[in-house]
Amino acid sequence: xxxxxVPKPQPKPDPSQQRSDxxxxxxxxxxxxxxxxxxxxxxxxxxxxxxxxxxxxxxxxRRDQPRPEPEAMKDESWARVLEHDAKAGVxxxxxxxxxxxxxxxxxxxxxxTVNQRIYIGKDRSKREAITAIIGMAHLDKxxxxxxxxxxxxxxxxxEEHGQYFVDExxxxxxxxxxxxxxxxxxxxxxxxxxxxxxxxxxxVGVFASMDELNSLAKIKGAELLAQRFVEEMExxxxxxxxxxxxxxxxx
Length: 251
Description:
By secondary structure, the protein is an alpha+beta fold. The chain has 8 helices and 5 strands; from the N terminus they run H-H-E-E-E-E-E-H-H-H-H-H-H. It has a 5-stranded antiparallel beta sheet, covered by helices on one side. Mean pLDDT is 84; it is low at 26-30.
């Protein structure tokens, strides 16, 4: 065989000719195998994802669902108003069973007063003053006025359940150790005062009422217990915790 002929170089295509042919063959500008319709012709910019936030998708569904209420309040039925922000339509209340604080949404333009008793239980049809429990409240974030009103509010609660607290605390309290009596957990009650209270109780066996306790022991039983409760609310490390030992109030 003879020598093979060296291949001759092929002429390069003319770029200007290619552009001209492209314009004649496909003026639409669509890329082969590409997605039909650019952003301006009904692609993502026009159709978008179905059910997006703007068209009532996931975001709309969440707004339609009621916000879950705090688990800590599930067994509560009644509460006392501590403060009401009428401008925001939100009140801070103290639950009666555990004295826990929560924030509630007030119905309409109603104005709630301090110590007003309102229903916050599970039966929403009975909630005359509120629409929902919107969260727990913390003492350190309350207004100075609410903090100042708290001891009186707790004292009124104790007075209304006076017989319960006399029976469950003042008549049952005993020595915590050889040197300390349970009465000494109360503010301004030292060993001598505690012994005098025990002697007063021994004279009658048990205190028949809060009035008898105050008269014989020469104290203000509801006020002292309220002060102890407030101290425990302010200091979570304070033990033993009477607020946990004595609550909820059992009718």
